[in-house]
Amino acid sequence: MTDLFFYIFATLTLGCAFGVVFSRNPVNAAMFLIMTFIGMAAHFVMLEAYFLAVIQILVYAGAVVVLFLFIIMLLDVGEEKKHRVKPLTWVASLVGFALLILGVVSITSSDNIKTASDSLPEAAGASLKNFGYELFTTYQLPMQVTGFLLLIAMIGVIVLSKKVKTD
Amino acid sequence: MTVGLEQYIAVSAALFAIGFFGVLRRKNTLVIYMCLELMLNACNLGLIAFSRFHGGMSGSVFVFFTITVAAAEVAVGLAIIVALFRKRQTVQVPELNALKN
């Protein structure tokens, strides 16, 4: 049953990702992006990372896509004109894809992976309590640095979007 | 065929490749940003899959950080795009060639 759900949501995620890449209208691309994020959240639920699934829906499918849609409508971006894809672009994406496949095959066929069990093991305390404990003990410094990063990003956005004085 | 770590990594890699192709192919800056988000999400899926199948919490915590950084990055990036649009009245990459030659 879980396997069936995995394949359904994998198809949804990848299909909507193709929609993002190939839809000519940016608003449609943003809508496909929401569906991709929801598919990812479903994957997170299947991996029993419930907290991150909620965060994924709230932050990505909510805030980030709304921001994208806001900017698309603010700038009044129209449909993208048809253009020829350069041969070099095809070569670059194919080479990148081949390298990625090579990496995935070499990782999944290595012994480090094989020691993990084939099917989903029992959840070893992957609860929100353990998540918070880990976050505020082992990763406390990165956590605080992230807070500063958000502050700096906020100040940066204010500075960037201030009207430039013309004298 | 049971779903194991390999299947999740395959989905993650496919999503990353799609995002990469989109970044190379599209000319609209906003859609390029969306494709970057796809690539970040692919990394998140890989991290969570590894963390789940090896029974640790570190991967999930890293995903938390990735999401935070991605949100900050989107805010700053879109502000830059708006500033660029104010200056040049376009978001299409081929027309932004001030540094060419």
TrEMBL record, chain A:
The protein's enzyme class: translocase
GO molecular function, one term: quinone binding
Reaction(s) this enzyme catalyzes, per UniProt: a quinone + NADH + 5 H(+)(in) = a quinol + NAD(+) + 4 H(+)(out)
Cross-referenced Gene3D superfamilies: NADH-ubiquinone/plastoquinone oxidoreductase chain 6, subunit NuoJ
One Pfam family, short name: Oxidored_q3
Topological category with respect to the lipid bilayer: Multi-pass membrane protein
Name of the protein: NADH-quinone oxidoreductase subunit J
GO cellular component: plasma membrane
Function description: NDH-1 shuttles electrons from NADH, via FMN and iron-sulfur (Fe-S) centers, to quinones in the respiratory chain. Couples the redox reaction to proton translocation (for every two electrons transferred, four hydrogen ions are translocated across the cytoplasmic membrane), and thus conserves the redox energy in a proton gradient.
UniProt KW keywords: Cell membrane, Membrane, NAD, Quinone, Transmembrane, Transmembrane helix
Native species: Pelagicoccus enzymogenes
TrEMBL record, chain B:
Name of the gene this protein is made from: nuoK
Enzyme Commission (EC) number: 7.1.1.-
Coiled coil spans: none
Reactions mediated catalytically: a quinone + NADH + 5 H(+)(in) = a quinol + NAD(+) + 4 H(+)(out)
GO annotations of cellular component type: NADH dehydrogenase complex; plasma membrane
The entry's keywords: Cell membrane, Membrane, NAD, Oxidoreductase, Quinone, Translocase, Transmembrane, Transmembrane helix, Transport, Ubiquinone
One of the GO BP terms on file: ATP synthesis coupled electron transport
GO molecular function ontology, one term from the record: quinone binding
InterPro entries per the UniProt record, alphabetical: NADH_UbQ_OxRdtase_chain4L/K (IPR001133), NUOK/Mnh_C1-like (IPR039428)
Domain of life, source organism: Bacteria
Subcellular location: Cell membrane; Membrane
Pfam family, one: Oxidored_q2
Membrane-spanning segments: 6-24, 31-50, 62-85
Matches recorded under NCBIfam families: PRK05715.1-2, PRK05715.1-3, PRK05715.1-5
Function in brief: NDH-1 shuttles electrons from NADH, via FMN and iron-sulfur (Fe-S) centers, to quinones in the respiratory chain. The immediate electron acceptor for the enzyme in this species is believed to be ubiquinone. Couples the redox reaction to proton translocation (for every two electrons transferred, four hydrogen ions are translocated across the cytoplasmic membrane), and thus conserves the redox energy in a proton gradient.
Classification lineage: Bacteria, Pseudomonadati, Verrucomicrobiota, Opitutia, Puniceicoccales
Recorded family membership: Belongs to the complex I subunit 4L family.
Signal peptide: none
Subunit structure: NDH-1 is composed of 14 different subunits. Subunits NuoA, H, J, K, L, M, N constitute the membrane sector of the complex.
Membrane topology: Multi-pass membrane protein
Name of the protein described by the UniProt record: NADH-quinone oxidoreductase subunit K
